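In this supplementary section we document a worked example of the pipeline. Step one takes a protein sequence of length 357 as its only input; no multiple sequence alignment statistics are reported here. Step two produces a three-dimensional model, which step three serialises into structure tokens for compact storage. The input and output of this example are shown verbatim.
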Amino acid sequence: MNSTELKLRERIKELTCLYEVSSIIGNTDINSLPNSLYAILRSLKKAFQHPEFTEIEIAYEGTSYTTGDINYEITISSPLRLFNKPKGTLTASLKAYKSSFLKEEKQLIDSVALKISSLLERIEIKKNENSLRRQVERTDRLNILGEITAGIAHELNTPLTNILGFSELLKENCSREEDIKDLDKIIQNAIYSREVVKKLMFFACEMPQTRETIDIVPTITSAIDLLRPTLRKKQMECILETHEKLFLKADALQITQVLFNLVMNAIYFTPEQGTIEIKAFQKNEQVIIKVKDEGTGLTAEAKEKLFEPFFTTKPIGEGSGLGLSVVHGIIASHQGSISAKNNIEKGATFEIQLPIN
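The serialised model returned by step three reads:
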């Protein structure tokens, strides 16, 4: 076979590869991305002059997709760019030292890298759209729950007050010890139910506030001090990292409750002799508070339902599922936001963002 025929054959292989890659990319969605990348690798490998000696690799976001072992001593590569930022590489390597790459093969690598970059950009945009949609859906769901919860709380408040008031009146006029014990149980349960209603009102942002400019640092310190006995009992360390003063306009008691609930949650999930980290700092016009634990982290379901009333990952009897919903309600009423994410190594971090004014 003469050199002209060889060049023509290689050119046909390259054009076939580009057509196949375009077809693969056109049929790729988020779920099929790994399979599509492997299909691109196989197609690209066939387009090289010596496919039996050639291996291809796509390195992207810490993951490597390859057709085989890469010989990094003889390679050609092209960057994968997402929104003009390098995010990975497309590399071809040769196993045989007697071979070398053609100029056209480098051009082919560059062309395919551009196509892969466009695909990854499209997938990234889709991911962001899905994430935004889930956030909107979750916000809508919490708003609806807030409206329903507020209605339920208002409806329960009056009968609970009546039950508590009449039970105390009966107790005053009661002489039998057994009846007094029964009335005490009614009163205790009514008080407990009233506290549940109060927490529901917090979630629904229906509790009155006294907002004034406060230094948040003593508030954080006082919430930690309240939990010192529990921390000592579990031999835990709670590290606070913050500035000397952080001012914002807030209800001091409600913010104390927020921090108390978050630290209590961190203590529950962190194993004995573990460490809880709290960071507070100002960024632009917001105060940021982060509470980091060393627990098992959050499941996908927990991330979705974390701040909904009565949702809990604790065993029955160990949690009402209202602590984090109260936190969400208070933060929302302060026009702030709260989010949670898993740490790289272990545990989770809750992040609060509160406007200064």
